[in-house]
Amino acid sequence: MFIMSEDSQRTQGRDAQSSNIMAGKAVAESVRTTLGPRGMDKMLVDSGGEVVITNDGATILNEMDIEHPAAQMIVEVAETQEEEVGDGTTTAAVIAGNLLGEAEDLIEQDVHATTIVEGYHQAAEIALEAIAEQVQEAEVDDDVLKQVAESSMTGKGTGGLTAETLAETVVEAVRHVDTDDGVARDNVAVHTQIGASSNATELVPGIVIDEEPAQETMPSEVEDASIAILDVELEVRTGEVDAEYAIDSIDQLNAAVDAEESELSGYAETIADSGADVVFTTDDVDDRVSSALAAEDILVFDNIGSSDASEIASATGASRVGALDDLEESDFGEADRIRTENFGDDDLAFVEGGAAAEAVTVFVRGGTEHVVDELERAIGDALDVAATALESGEVVPGAGATEIAIADRVRQEAAGIEGRKQLAVDAFADALDVVPRTLAANTGQDPIDALVDLRAAHESEGRAGLITNGEEVTIDDPFDYGVLDPADVKREAIESAAEAATMIVRIDDVIAAE
Protein backbone atom coordinates (compact mmCIF):
# COMPACT_ATOMS: atom_id res chain seq x y z
CA MET A 1 0.00 0.00 0.00
CA PHE A 2 1.39 3.38 -1.05
CA ILE A 3 0.62 6.20 1.37
CA MET A 4 3.01 8.70 -0.20
CA SER A 5 3.98 9.41 -3.77
CA GLU A 6 6.40 6.92 -5.29
CA ASP A 7 8.79 9.82 -5.88
CA SER A 8 8.86 10.79 -2.19
CA GLN A 9 11.98 10.11 -0.16
CA ARG A 10 11.92 9.27 3.53
CA THR A 11 14.80 9.16 6.01
CA GLN A 12 14.16 7.91 9.53
CA GLY A 13 15.80 7.39 12.91
CA ARG A 14 19.54 7.80 13.33
CA ASP A 15 20.01 8.40 9.62
CA ALA A 16 17.69 11.41 9.72
CA GLN A 17 19.32 12.80 12.85
CA SER A 18 22.80 12.27 11.47
CA SER A 19 21.94 13.94 8.14
CA ASN A 20 20.41 16.99 9.78
CA ILE A 21 23.19 17.40 12.32
CA MET A 22 25.83 17.05 9.63
CA ALA A 23 24.17 19.77 7.54
CA GLY A 24 23.92 22.14 10.50
CA LYS A 25 27.56 21.57 11.46
CA ALA A 26 28.68 22.19 7.87
CA VAL A 27 26.97 25.59 7.77
CA ALA A 28 28.45 26.59 11.11
CA GLU A 29 31.89 25.49 9.98
CA SER A 30 31.63 27.66 6.85
CA VAL A 31 31.67 30.85 8.93
CA ARG A 32 33.84 29.72 11.86
CA THR A 33 37.09 31.12 10.45
CA THR A 34 35.58 34.62 10.17
CA LEU A 35 35.16 34.96 13.95
CA GLY A 36 37.10 37.58 15.89
CA PRO A 37 39.54 40.40 15.11
CA ARG A 38 41.80 38.06 13.14
CA GLY A 39 38.96 36.36 11.29
CA MET A 40 39.40 35.65 7.60
CA ASP A 41 37.22 36.93 4.75
CA LYS A 42 35.07 34.91 2.37
CA MET A 43 34.71 35.55 -1.34
CA LEU A 44 31.22 34.70 -2.56
CA VAL A 45 30.55 34.53 -6.30
CA ASP A 46 26.99 34.12 -7.54
CA SER A 47 25.83 32.55 -10.81
CA GLY A 48 25.97 35.96 -12.51
CA GLY A 49 29.60 36.50 -11.55
CA GLU A 50 28.87 39.14 -8.91
CA VAL A 51 31.46 39.05 -6.15
CA VAL A 52 30.95 39.76 -2.44
CA ILE A 53 33.97 39.84 -0.11
CA THR A 54 33.10 39.91 3.59
CA ASN A 55 33.60 38.32 6.98
CA ASP A 56 30.12 39.21 8.18
CA GLY A 57 28.40 35.97 9.18
CA ALA A 58 24.87 37.03 8.28
CA THR A 59 25.93 38.21 4.83
CA ILE A 60 27.87 35.02 4.12
CA LEU A 61 24.98 32.76 5.09
CA ASN A 62 22.46 34.87 3.17
CA GLU A 63 24.58 34.77 0.03
CA MET A 64 25.14 31.01 0.17
CA ASP A 65 22.73 28.91 -1.87
CA ILE A 66 21.67 26.57 0.94
CA GLU A 67 18.90 24.07 0.22
CA HIS A 68 19.08 21.55 3.08
CA PRO A 69 16.18 22.33 5.47
CA ALA A 70 18.23 21.72 8.63
CA ALA A 71 21.03 23.91 7.33
CA GLN A 72 18.45 26.59 6.62
CA MET A 73 17.58 26.57 10.32
CA ILE A 74 21.16 27.60 11.16
CA VAL A 75 20.86 30.39 8.61
CA GLU A 76 17.69 31.49 10.38
CA VAL A 77 19.66 31.64 13.65
CA ALA A 78 21.98 34.20 12.07
CA GLU A 79 19.05 36.09 10.55
CA THR A 80 17.27 36.29 13.90
CA GLN A 81 20.45 37.44 15.61
CA GLU A 82 20.90 40.14 12.96
CA GLU A 83 17.32 41.35 13.23
CA GLU A 84 17.21 41.41 17.03
CA VAL A 85 20.60 42.84 18.02
CA GLY A 86 22.53 43.43 14.80
CA ASP A 87 25.72 41.53 15.66
CA GLY A 88 26.97 38.20 16.95
CA THR A 89 25.67 36.29 13.94
CA THR A 90 28.83 34.25 13.52
CA THR A 91 28.96 33.47 17.24
CA ALA A 92 25.34 32.29 17.24
CA ALA A 93 25.83 30.08 14.18
CA VAL A 94 29.06 28.56 15.49
CA ILE A 95 27.55 27.80 18.90
CA ALA A 96 24.51 26.22 17.24
CA GLY A 97 26.76 24.02 15.10
CA ASN A 98 28.78 22.85 18.11
CA LEU A 99 25.65 22.17 20.14
CA LEU A 100 24.66 19.84 17.31
CA GLY A 101 28.08 18.21 17.33
CA GLU A 102 27.89 17.58 21.07
CA ALA A 103 24.35 16.24 20.66
CA GLU A 104 25.55 13.82 17.99
CA ASP A 105 28.13 12.39 20.39
CA LEU A 106 25.44 11.94 23.06
CA ILE A 107 23.08 10.22 20.63
CA GLU A 108 25.86 7.77 19.77
CA GLN A 109 26.10 7.07 23.52
CA ASP A 110 22.37 6.18 23.46
CA VAL A 111 21.26 9.36 25.23
CA HIS A 112 17.71 10.02 24.07
CA ALA A 113 17.01 13.20 22.08
CA THR A 114 14.38 14.29 24.61
CA THR A 115 16.97 14.09 27.40
CA ILE A 116 19.38 16.19 25.32
CA VAL A 117 16.71 18.79 24.66
CA GLU A 118 15.79 19.04 28.34
CA GLY A 119 19.45 19.33 29.31
CA TYR A 120 20.10 22.03 26.72
CA HIS A 121 17.11 24.06 27.89
CA GLN A 122 18.25 23.88 31.51
CA ALA A 123 21.81 24.76 30.53
CA ALA A 124 20.58 27.76 28.51
CA GLU A 125 18.76 29.09 31.58
CA ILE A 126 21.94 28.74 33.64
CA ALA A 127 23.88 30.48 30.87
CA LEU A 128 21.54 33.47 30.89
CA GLU A 129 22.02 33.80 34.65
CA ALA A 130 25.78 33.68 34.14
CA ILE A 131 25.60 36.47 31.55
CA ALA A 132 23.81 38.70 34.06
CA GLU A 133 26.67 38.13 36.51
CA GLN A 134 29.19 39.34 33.89
CA VAL A 135 27.51 42.71 33.28
CA GLN A 136 29.82 45.67 33.89
CA GLU A 137 28.75 47.77 36.84
CA ALA A 138 29.90 51.09 35.34
CA GLU A 139 27.42 53.34 33.52
CA VAL A 140 27.17 52.96 29.75
CA ASP A 141 28.47 56.40 28.74
CA ASP A 142 29.93 57.61 25.44
CA ASP A 143 33.33 56.05 26.16
CA VAL A 144 31.73 52.66 26.77
CA LEU A 145 29.59 53.00 23.63
CA LYS A 146 32.72 53.77 21.59
CA GLN A 147 34.38 50.65 22.98
CA VAL A 148 31.32 48.55 22.10
CA ALA A 149 31.21 49.95 18.55
CA GLU A 150 34.96 49.57 18.08
CA SER A 151 34.89 45.97 19.34
CA SER A 152 32.15 45.21 16.82
CA MET A 153 34.15 46.61 13.89
CA THR A 154 37.61 45.31 14.83
CA GLY A 155 38.71 42.82 12.21
CA LYS A 156 36.14 43.94 9.66
CA GLY A 157 36.91 45.84 6.48
CA THR A 158 36.96 49.55 7.34
CA GLY A 159 39.01 50.85 4.42
CA GLY A 160 41.58 53.49 5.37
CA LEU A 161 39.74 54.37 8.57
CA THR A 162 40.45 52.84 11.94
CA ALA A 163 37.67 51.23 13.93
CA GLU A 164 38.31 53.83 16.63
CA THR A 165 37.61 56.72 14.25
CA LEU A 166 34.45 55.13 12.91
CA ALA A 167 33.28 54.36 16.45
CA GLU A 168 33.17 58.09 17.23
CA THR A 169 30.91 58.67 14.23
CA VAL A 170 28.71 55.73 15.25
CA VAL A 171 28.25 56.99 18.81
CA GLU A 172 27.45 60.50 17.60
CA ALA A 173 24.80 59.06 15.28
CA VAL A 174 23.22 56.91 18.00
CA ARG A 175 23.19 59.77 20.48
CA HIS A 176 21.39 61.89 17.89
CA VAL A 177 18.42 59.50 17.88
CA ASP A 178 18.38 58.77 21.62
CA THR A 179 14.93 59.85 22.85
CA ASP A 180 12.88 59.54 26.02
CA ASP A 181 11.10 56.59 24.38
CA GLY A 182 14.34 54.77 23.58
CA VAL A 183 16.84 54.72 20.73
CA ALA A 184 15.16 55.29 17.35
CA ARG A 185 17.59 53.07 15.43
CA ASP A 186 15.48 53.29 12.26
CA ASN A 187 16.24 57.03 12.12
CA VAL A 188 19.91 56.32 11.45
CA ALA A 189 20.64 55.60 7.79
CA VAL A 190 23.83 54.53 6.06
CA HIS A 191 24.37 55.91 2.53
CA THR A 192 27.33 54.74 0.46
CA GLN A 193 29.07 56.57 -2.36
CA ILE A 194 32.17 55.41 -4.19
CA GLY A 195 34.76 57.75 -5.64
CA ALA A 196 36.73 58.99 -2.62
CA SER A 197 38.83 57.68 0.23
CA SER A 198 37.04 56.18 3.20
CA ASN A 199 38.55 59.06 5.18
CA ALA A 200 35.85 61.25 3.60
CA THR A 201 33.14 59.36 5.52
CA GLU A 202 31.07 61.85 7.50
CA LEU A 203 27.95 62.21 9.59
CA VAL A 204 25.12 64.15 7.96
CA PRO A 205 22.55 65.58 10.40
CA GLY A 206 19.66 64.69 8.16
CA ILE A 207 19.08 62.39 5.19
CA VAL A 208 20.73 61.79 1.82
CA ILE A 209 18.78 60.73 -1.28
CA ASP A 210 19.76 59.90 -4.86
CA GLU A 211 18.02 62.79 -6.60
CA GLU A 212 18.88 65.74 -8.82
CA PRO A 213 17.00 69.03 -9.34
CA ALA A 214 14.30 69.08 -11.98
CA GLN A 215 16.17 71.93 -13.72
CA GLU A 216 19.90 72.69 -13.84
CA THR A 217 19.16 76.42 -13.37
CA MET A 218 17.61 75.81 -9.96
CA PRO A 219 19.63 76.80 -6.87
CA SER A 220 22.08 74.15 -5.67
CA GLU A 221 21.64 75.17 -2.03
CA VAL A 222 18.77 76.58 0.02
CA GLU A 223 19.19 77.62 3.65
CA ASP A 224 16.37 77.81 6.21
CA ALA A 225 14.25 75.90 3.73
CA SER A 226 10.46 75.61 3.87
CA ILE A 227 9.73 72.20 2.36
CA ALA A 228 6.60 71.00 0.58
CA ILE A 229 6.14 67.30 -0.15
CA LEU A 230 3.57 66.56 -2.85
CA ASP A 231 1.95 63.47 -4.29
CA VAL A 232 0.79 65.53 -7.24
CA GLU A 233 1.42 65.43 -11.00
CA LEU A 234 2.36 68.93 -12.17
CA GLU A 235 1.60 68.37 -15.84
CA VAL A 236 -1.31 69.08 -18.18
CA ARG A 237 -4.27 67.03 -17.04
CA THR A 238 -5.44 64.38 -19.49
CA GLY A 239 -8.68 62.44 -19.58
CA GLU A 240 -8.87 58.79 -18.71
CA VAL A 241 -10.48 58.04 -22.08
CA ASP A 242 -8.60 58.39 -25.38
CA ALA A 243 -10.09 61.27 -27.34
CA GLU A 244 -9.26 63.38 -30.40
CA TYR A 245 -10.07 67.05 -30.88
CA ALA A 246 -10.53 68.64 -34.30
CA ILE A 247 -8.96 72.11 -34.61
CA ASP A 248 -10.20 74.08 -37.60
CA SER A 249 -8.29 77.34 -37.18
CA ILE A 250 -5.14 78.89 -35.77
CA ASP A 251 -7.27 80.67 -33.20
CA GLN A 252 -8.47 77.36 -31.79
CA LEU A 253 -4.87 76.08 -31.66
CA ASN A 254 -3.72 79.21 -29.85
CA ALA A 255 -6.61 78.88 -27.43
CA ALA A 256 -5.63 75.27 -26.68
CA VAL A 257 -1.99 76.25 -26.15
CA ASP A 258 -3.01 79.17 -23.95
CA ALA A 259 -5.20 76.89 -21.86
CA GLU A 260 -2.26 74.55 -21.30
CA GLU A 261 0.06 77.41 -20.41
CA SER A 262 -2.53 78.85 -18.06
CA GLU A 263 -2.95 75.52 -16.30
CA LEU A 264 0.80 75.01 -15.91
CA SER A 265 1.52 78.57 -14.84
CA GLY A 266 -1.27 78.16 -12.29
CA TYR A 267 0.64 75.27 -10.72
CA ALA A 268 3.82 77.34 -10.52
CA GLU A 269 1.99 80.37 -9.10
CA THR A 270 0.25 78.29 -6.43
CA ILE A 271 3.55 76.83 -5.26
CA ALA A 272 5.36 80.18 -5.38
CA ASP A 273 2.55 81.95 -3.50
CA SER A 274 2.56 79.24 -0.82
CA GLY A 275 6.01 80.31 0.35
CA ALA A 276 7.72 76.95 -0.22
CA ASP A 277 11.46 77.14 -0.99
CA VAL A 278 11.90 73.46 -1.84
CA VAL A 279 9.43 71.03 -3.37
CA PHE A 280 9.65 67.24 -3.42
CA THR A 281 7.02 65.44 -5.47
CA THR A 282 6.51 61.76 -6.13
CA ASP A 283 5.10 62.45 -9.61
CA ASP A 284 6.13 64.20 -12.84
CA VAL A 285 6.73 67.92 -13.23
CA ASP A 286 6.34 69.54 -16.66
CA ASP A 287 9.45 71.31 -17.91
CA ARG A 288 7.47 74.58 -18.20
CA VAL A 289 6.44 74.34 -14.55
CA SER A 290 9.95 73.57 -13.37
CA SER A 291 11.33 76.45 -15.48
CA ALA A 292 8.85 78.85 -13.92
CA LEU A 293 9.74 77.63 -10.44
CA ALA A 294 13.46 77.91 -11.23
CA ALA A 295 12.87 81.56 -12.15
CA GLU A 296 11.46 82.00 -8.62
CA ASP A 297 14.59 80.33 -7.13
CA ILE A 298 12.52 77.37 -5.93
CA LEU A 299 14.33 74.04 -5.81
CA VAL A 300 12.24 71.12 -7.14
CA PHE A 301 12.84 67.36 -7.09
CA ASP A 302 10.40 65.23 -9.08
CA ASN A 303 9.69 61.51 -9.37
CA ILE A 304 11.15 60.75 -5.94
CA GLY A 305 10.32 57.40 -4.40
CA SER A 306 7.49 57.11 -1.91
CA SER A 307 9.90 55.80 0.74
CA ASP A 308 12.18 58.80 0.19
CA ALA A 309 9.19 61.12 0.52
CA SER A 310 8.25 59.48 3.81
CA GLU A 311 11.82 59.79 5.12
CA ILE A 312 11.95 63.48 4.20
CA ALA A 313 8.58 64.06 5.85
CA SER A 314 9.74 62.32 9.02
CA ALA A 315 13.06 64.16 9.11
CA THR A 316 11.68 67.64 8.48
CA GLY A 317 8.20 67.51 10.02
CA ALA A 318 6.46 68.02 6.67
CA SER A 319 3.09 66.55 5.70
CA ARG A 320 2.55 64.86 2.35
CA VAL A 321 -0.09 66.65 0.32
CA GLY A 322 -2.20 64.88 -2.27
CA ALA A 323 -3.78 67.91 -3.98
CA LEU A 324 -2.14 71.20 -4.83
CA ASP A 325 -5.19 73.19 -3.71
CA ASP A 326 -4.77 71.68 -0.23
CA LEU A 327 -1.21 72.99 0.17
CA GLU A 328 -0.90 75.20 3.23
CA GLU A 329 1.99 76.62 5.20
CA SER A 330 1.16 74.29 8.09
CA ASP A 331 2.08 71.36 5.80
CA PHE A 332 5.64 72.61 5.34
CA GLY A 333 8.67 70.99 6.87
CA GLU A 334 11.80 72.84 7.90
CA ALA A 335 15.50 72.21 7.29
CA ASP A 336 18.58 74.25 8.05
CA ARG A 337 19.93 73.55 4.61
CA ILE A 338 19.17 71.57 1.47
CA ARG A 339 22.01 71.16 -0.97
CA THR A 340 22.78 69.13 -4.06
CA GLU A 341 26.17 67.69 -4.98
CA ASN A 342 27.49 65.81 -7.97
CA PHE A 343 29.61 62.69 -7.47
CA GLY A 344 30.73 61.53 -10.89
CA ASP A 345 27.63 60.13 -12.55
CA ASP A 346 25.52 60.48 -9.41
CA ASP A 347 23.63 63.45 -8.04
CA LEU A 348 22.70 63.51 -4.37
CA ALA A 349 20.43 65.74 -2.33
CA PHE A 350 21.32 66.46 1.31
CA VAL A 351 18.49 67.48 3.63
CA GLU A 352 20.22 68.74 6.75
CA GLY A 353 19.13 69.87 10.20
CA GLY A 354 16.03 71.72 11.23
CA ALA A 355 14.07 72.07 14.44
CA ALA A 356 11.96 69.00 13.65
CA ALA A 357 14.82 66.94 12.22
CA GLU A 358 15.15 63.51 13.80
CA ALA A 359 17.09 61.56 11.18
CA VAL A 360 20.84 61.28 10.72
CA THR A 361 22.88 59.64 7.97
CA VAL A 362 26.35 58.12 7.99
CA PHE A 363 27.64 59.11 4.55
CA VAL A 364 30.15 56.39 3.71
CA ARG A 365 32.85 56.94 1.10
CA GLY A 366 35.22 54.44 -0.43
CA GLY A 367 37.39 53.92 -3.47
CA THR A 368 35.61 50.80 -4.75
CA GLU A 369 32.23 49.16 -4.45
CA HIS A 370 33.67 46.29 -2.40
CA VAL A 371 35.17 48.73 0.12
CA VAL A 372 31.97 50.72 0.64
CA ASP A 373 29.84 47.56 0.84
CA GLU A 374 31.99 46.12 3.62
CA LEU A 375 32.14 49.50 5.35
CA GLU A 376 28.35 49.69 5.21
CA ARG A 377 28.04 46.26 6.84
CA ALA A 378 30.59 47.08 9.54
CA ILE A 379 29.00 50.43 10.38
CA GLY A 380 25.52 48.90 10.35
CA ASP A 381 26.57 46.29 12.91
CA ALA A 382 28.29 48.91 15.05
CA LEU A 383 25.19 51.11 15.01
CA ASP A 384 23.05 48.16 16.08
CA VAL A 385 25.25 47.13 19.00
CA ALA A 386 25.75 50.71 20.18
CA ALA A 387 21.99 51.26 20.12
CA THR A 388 21.42 47.95 21.93
CA ALA A 389 23.99 48.80 24.61
CA LEU A 390 22.60 52.30 25.10
CA GLU A 391 19.03 51.08 25.41
CA SER A 392 19.73 48.17 27.76
CA GLY A 393 22.58 49.80 29.70
CA GLU A 394 24.32 46.42 29.97
CA VAL A 395 27.69 45.38 28.53
CA VAL A 396 29.81 42.29 29.16
CA PRO A 397 33.46 41.42 28.42
CA GLY A 398 34.26 40.26 24.91
CA ALA A 399 37.27 38.32 23.59
CA GLY A 400 35.73 35.00 24.67
CA ALA A 401 35.68 35.95 28.38
CA THR A 402 31.91 35.78 28.70
CA GLU A 403 31.77 32.35 27.06
CA ILE A 404 34.50 31.08 29.40
CA ALA A 405 32.51 32.37 32.40
CA ILE A 406 29.25 30.88 31.14
CA ALA A 407 30.81 27.47 30.46
CA ASP A 408 32.39 27.44 33.91
CA ARG A 409 29.08 28.26 35.59
CA VAL A 410 27.18 25.64 33.56
CA ARG A 411 29.72 22.94 34.51
CA GLN A 412 29.41 23.85 38.18
CA GLU A 413 25.62 23.60 38.03
CA ALA A 414 25.78 20.34 36.06
CA ALA A 415 27.31 18.57 39.05
CA GLY A 416 24.02 18.93 40.91
CA ILE A 417 21.84 17.54 38.10
CA GLU A 418 20.87 13.89 38.30
CA GLY A 419 20.63 11.35 35.53
CA ARG A 420 21.69 11.48 31.93
CA LYS A 421 20.50 15.08 31.64
CA GLN A 422 23.76 16.00 33.36
CA LEU A 423 25.61 14.78 30.28
CA ALA A 424 23.63 17.19 28.09
CA VAL A 425 24.29 20.12 30.43
CA ASP A 426 28.01 19.32 30.42
CA ALA A 427 27.90 19.03 26.62
CA PHE A 428 26.31 22.49 26.43
CA ALA A 429 29.28 23.94 28.35
CA ASP A 430 31.72 22.14 26.05
CA ALA A 431 29.95 23.61 23.03
CA LEU A 432 30.43 27.14 24.37
CA ASP A 433 34.19 26.57 24.46
CA VAL A 434 34.14 26.76 20.66
CA VAL A 435 34.16 30.58 20.83
CA PRO A 436 37.47 31.02 22.69
CA ARG A 437 38.95 28.03 20.86
CA THR A 438 38.07 29.57 17.50
CA LEU A 439 39.35 33.00 18.53
CA ALA A 440 42.64 31.35 19.48
CA ALA A 441 42.89 29.38 16.24
CA ASN A 442 42.15 32.50 14.16
CA THR A 443 44.99 34.38 15.89
CA GLY A 444 47.47 31.57 15.24
CA GLN A 445 47.41 30.22 18.80
CA ASP A 446 47.03 26.59 19.79
CA PRO A 447 43.30 26.27 20.67
CA ILE A 448 43.78 23.70 23.43
CA ASP A 449 46.64 25.54 25.13
CA ALA A 450 44.76 28.83 24.90
CA LEU A 451 41.61 27.29 26.37
CA VAL A 452 43.54 25.82 29.31
CA ASP A 453 45.25 29.16 29.98
CA LEU A 454 41.95 31.04 29.74
CA ARG A 455 40.27 28.72 32.22
CA ALA A 456 43.18 29.06 34.63
CA ALA A 457 43.14 32.86 34.36
CA HIS A 458 39.38 32.91 34.84
CA GLU A 459 39.71 30.81 38.00
CA SER A 460 42.42 33.06 39.45
CA GLU A 461 41.37 36.50 38.21
CA GLY A 462 37.61 36.10 37.73
CA ARG A 463 37.65 37.41 34.17
CA ALA A 464 39.91 36.48 31.24
CA GLY A 465 39.75 36.93 27.49
CA LEU A 466 42.02 36.48 24.51
CA ILE A 467 43.15 40.05 23.77
CA THR A 468 44.54 40.89 20.33
CA ASN A 469 46.67 44.04 20.47
CA GLY A 470 48.39 44.55 17.13
CA GLU A 471 50.50 41.45 16.51
CA GLU A 472 50.51 40.53 20.18
CA VAL A 473 47.96 38.13 21.70
CA THR A 474 47.63 38.07 25.49
CA ILE A 475 45.24 36.70 28.10
CA ASP A 476 43.89 39.50 30.28
CA ASP A 477 40.77 41.29 31.48
CA PRO A 478 38.84 42.56 28.38
CA PHE A 479 37.42 45.46 30.41
CA ASP A 480 40.93 46.85 30.78
CA TYR A 481 41.30 46.91 26.99
CA GLY A 482 37.82 48.18 26.16
CA VAL A 483 36.76 44.93 24.47
CA LEU A 484 33.04 44.96 25.23
CA ASP A 485 29.83 43.46 23.85
CA PRO A 486 26.21 44.27 24.68
CA ALA A 487 24.81 41.69 27.08
CA ASP A 488 21.78 41.29 24.80
CA VAL A 489 24.03 40.06 21.97
CA LYS A 490 25.24 37.19 24.15
CA ARG A 491 21.74 36.41 25.41
CA GLU A 492 20.29 36.29 21.92
CA ALA A 493 23.14 34.09 20.64
CA ILE A 494 22.63 31.56 23.44
CA GLU A 495 18.84 31.50 23.13
CA SER A 496 18.64 31.28 19.34
CA ALA A 497 21.47 28.72 19.06
CA ALA A 498 19.94 26.48 21.73
CA GLU A 499 16.49 26.74 20.17
CA ALA A 500 17.72 25.80 16.69
CA ALA A 501 19.91 22.94 17.95
CA THR A 502 17.15 21.36 20.04
CA MET A 503 14.68 21.67 17.18
CA ILE A 504 17.04 19.86 14.81
CA VAL A 505 17.93 17.14 17.36
CA ARG A 506 14.23 16.29 17.85
CA ILE A 507 13.74 15.49 14.16
CA ASP A 508 13.86 11.74 13.51
CA ASP A 509 11.85 11.54 10.30
CA VAL A 510 12.42 13.50 7.09
CA ILE A 511 9.89 13.16 4.28
CA ALA A 512 10.85 14.91 1.06
CA ALA A 513 8.61 15.12 -2.01
CA GLU A 514 10.29 15.11 -5.40
UniProtKB/TrEMBL annotation:
UniProt-listed Gene3D superfamilies: GroEL (3.50.7.10), GroEL-like equatorial domain (1.10.560.10), TCP-1-like chaperonin intermediate domain (3.30.260.10)
Residues covered by region (Disordered): 1-20
Sorted UniProt keywords: ATP-binding, Chaperone, Nucleotide-binding
Pfam families, per database record: Cpn60_TCP1 (PF00118)
Family annotation (SUPFAM superfamilies): GroEL apical domain-like (SSF52029), GroEL equatorial domain-like (SSF48592), GroEL-intermediate domain like (SSF54849)
Gene Ontology terms, MF aspect: ATP binding; ATP hydrolysis activity; ATP-dependent protein folding chaperone; unfolded protein binding
UniProt keyword ATP-binding, yes or no: yes
Family listed: Belongs to the TCP-1 chaperonin family.
Protein name according to UniProt: Thermosome subunit
Species in which this protein is naturally found: Salinadaptatus halalkaliphilus
